[in-house]
Amino acid sequence: MVASSPAVARSSTSAFKALNQGGRLEICSWQDNYLLMYPEDHAYNPLDDIDQILVEEAAIKSRLKELGQEINQAYEGREVAVIAIINGAIIFVADLIRELNIPLQLDCIRISSYRDDTNAQTSEVIDKIRLDLKGLDVLIIDDILDSGNTLAHVTKLFRAMEPASLKTCVLLDKKTTRSVDFEADFVGFRIPDQFVVGYGLDFAERYRQLPCIGVLRPELQNPPEWS
Ligand code: IMP
Ligand code: MG
């Protein structure tokens, strides 16, 4: 059995619960749980679930250095207010801001996107920012530009706060037909229209820790047990 497959992880979690309920494991740390899910010689490797790598870790690292330079030049002599759209942008933003040699403030906004009754994509602010953007040079950072709804929504919200300037940066720009007309000011990579995970991008909150960006194995794209 391949210990890294979700099926094994799930059944082992049940085993863990059974043990716990049986009273044999009264106090249990996260690490204990993890060990039960992925026993000894079967280290979990999220790469096992990837069908095709689209952007290698080394390519991300070198592109981030270039992007950092582009942003440093664009904001030379000014301070920038970086707003990360989380969770997806967490890893990208953490690495990108360490390539910046300009003063910056960091804040996060949490957005959830879903399909409404008419099947149109809508996004909703779950956690607001704390910074007052009035008069600031704002750079919004997201993991991926797909339909354009999220960034169109967030830029509209922030424009109402009267920043001095407002730009956007995405790690990935997906070749799709946008539902709204939107282009980012700074783009890491342009990718084909495929659902990707890794380097912060998730499927059902999984795979964010992958160091590269890839396409999930087809049989893992909609396992009913994950819903
Ligand atoms: P939008 O369609 O441009 O509004 O993108 C909304 C959000 O959907 C992004 O911020 C991502 O979190 C998520 N998303 C879009 N495409 C992908 C993908 O291929 N993989 C993982 N998340 C995605
Ligand atoms: Mg997401």
Approximately what portion of the residues adopt beta-strand conformation? 25-35%
Please describe the biggest sheet, giving its number of strands, its sense, and whether it closes into a barrel. 6 strands, mixed
Principal-axis shape equals globular
For the CA atoms, what is the radius of gyration?
20 Å
Low-confidence stretches: 1-35
Ligands in the model, by name, code or SMILES, are: inosinic acid, magnesium ion
> What distance lies between the first and last C-alpha atoms, to the nearest angstrom?
23 Å
How many strand elements?
A: 9
As a percent range, the share of helical residues equals 25-40%
Element-level helix/strand string: HHEHEHEEEHEEEE
| Alpha plus pi helix count | 5
Strand order of the largest sheet: 4-3-2-5-6-7
Report the mean per-residue pLDDT as an integer.
83
Structural class based on helices, strands and sheet pairing: alpha/beta
Task: Provide structural commentary.
The protein is of the alpha/beta class and 227 residues long. Helix content is 27%, strand content 28%. The protein is built from 5 helices and 9 strands; from the N terminus they run H-H-E-H-E-H-E-E-E-H-E-E-E-E. The chain has helices spanning 6-21, 30-37, 57-74, 90-97, 149-159, and strands spanning 50-55, 80-86, 104-115, 121-127, 137-145, 165-174, 186-191, 196-197, 213-216. A 6-stranded mixed beta sheet has the order 4-3-2-5-6-7, sandwiched between helices. Strands 1-9-8 form a 3-stranded antiparallel beta sheet, with helices on one face. Helix 5 (149-159) links the parallel strand 5 (137-145) and strand 6. The chain is globular. The model is unreliable at 1-35 (pLDDT under 50). Residues 88, 202 line the site of magnesium ion. The site of inosinic acid has 16 residues, from strand 5, helix 5 and strand 8.
